[in-house]
């Protein structure tokens, strides 16, 4: 029995190390495909579950923050990538340069919109309310790859490798004063927007940049 426990423990340690190991081209995996280990959520935690190797977002407003060991969950310049599938009329978002909150809407950093057919006119790839996208590039029900690149004061958003939005903070915002919604540094968060929005995220990874 002790031998079995030891082998299981070693397997868990090995898997954890593999999940956080940097690939040859500099990428780290943030989601192991089996659990929400390394992620933190406040209220309405039931809005996030792991289903068939993906994070299923389904429930009332909540936010799932990366809180793992990669870069001590604090990123400045980086390339972030994930595969996403939205159900009809779903709304979600990926927050960058943000920080954990227990409840409410994050007021630190920017939200990069995820939305094909929800009533909100700001569609996938919008730097929400600062540089928005009206066009849609994928359909509900199909997996697509979303890439977010942050370098200095510039955010580039790609869908399936195509650049669909470029936001330069100095040019597109002007004087942002004391606003917390700005580029700086912080973690990544996934949004559960409302009980009628069902979204899936998988293959979540990040590459810190100089």
Provide structural commentary.
The protein is mainly beta and 210 residues long. 11% of the residues lie in helices and 38% in strands. It has a single domain, classed as Sandwich (Jelly Rolls). The strands form 2 sheets. Strands 1, 3, 4, 6, 9, 10, 11 and 13 form an 8-stranded antiparallel sheet that branches. The protein has a 5-stranded antiparallel sheet with strand order 2-5-12-7-8, with no helix packed on it. The termini are far apart.
Summary of the model, kept short:
With 210 residues, the chain is mainly beta.
Task: Report the C-alpha radius of gyration, rounded.
Answer: 17 Å
Q: Characterize the overall form.
A: globular
Q: Which parts are unreliable, with pLDDT below 50 for 5 consecutive residues or more?
A: 2-18
Q: How many angstroms does the end-to-end distance come to? A: 48 Å
Order of helices and strands: HEEEEEEEEEEEHEE
Number of helices: 2
The CATH architecture designation is Sandwich
Estimate nothing, just give the exact number of structural domains: 1
CATH fold title = Jelly Rolls
Q: How many β strands by DSSP? A: 13
Largest sheet: 8 strands, antiparallel
Q: Label the structural class.
A: mainly beta
